[in-house]
Write a structure and sequence with these properties.
Blueprint (H helix, E strand, L loop, with lengths): L1 H33 L6 H21 L4 H25 L3 E8 L4 H9 L5 E7 L2 E11 L3 H11 L4 E7 L28
Antiparallel strand pairs: 1-3, 1-4, 2-3
Helix pairs in contact: 1-2, 1-3, 4-5
Length: 192
């Protein structure tokens, strides 16, 4: 009875948790590597592969146990999801927001400036006539606030967000937690 309990419940559970942990570490490692964080990446890589080796060695010792295979796959899938959640909570990095609007951009620009965002604006011509293009570089942790301001002053503005690897000098706001986070990033193109 004890052997069955260990082989079909405890061992698969340990493999599942190990896979969640190593895949989450891998996701964070890749993100930090893309941001140029050279000091912590090797340490994360060490623990990621150590956990993976321990999990895969248990699989090879129990090749006749299909529950271990399922736990391994489920741990990988769950670890991918958990890694994305952790990365979202860490909000590491700097982003460029490009806002294109047909509507007069004065109120939006003033609101961004009032909230401490650096702004560069340009008058341009789009497919359907004159537009205003607004650029703002911000830390990821301030992105929800910036997007909320866009929606508040011009809900039909088109905007795009790009990751920036390195930025030097500029104006960056102090994070404000009074803006709601859920549902602010909407997929799909909005009208200008």
């Amino acid at each position: 009875m004890d052997y069955w309990w260990f082989s079909y419940v405890i061992l698969p559970l340990l493999i599942f948790v190990a896979r969640i942990t190593d895949v989450t570490l891998g996701t964070i490692r890749i993100i930090l590597m893309s941001k140029g964080k050279k000091r912590i990446v090797p340490l994360l890589a060490f623990f990621e592969i150590l956990i993976w080796v321990l999990a895969i060695s248990r699989i090879f010792k129990n090749l006749t146990n299909p529950v271990c295979y399922l736990a391994y796959a489920a741990g990988f899938a769950t670890g991918t999801y958990v890694g994305m959640l952790v990365e979202e909570k860490l909000a590491i990095g700097t982003q460029l927001v490009r806002i294109i609007t047909k509507k007069s951009a004065g109120a939006l620009i003033q609101s961004l400036v009032d909230h401490g965002f650096g702004v560069t604006s340009v008058e341009a011509t789009g497919t359907q006539g004159p537009v205003n293009v607004i650029y703002s570089v911000t830390d990821r942790k301030n992105m929800f606030q910036l997007i909320e301001l866009i929606h508040r002053f011009n809900p039909n503005a088109f905007y795009s967000v790009e990751d920036i690897r390195h930025v030097e000098k500029g104006i960056f706001p102090t994070p404000v937690s009074s803006f709601p986070k859920p549902g602010l990033f909407r997929r799909g193109r909005k009208g200008k």
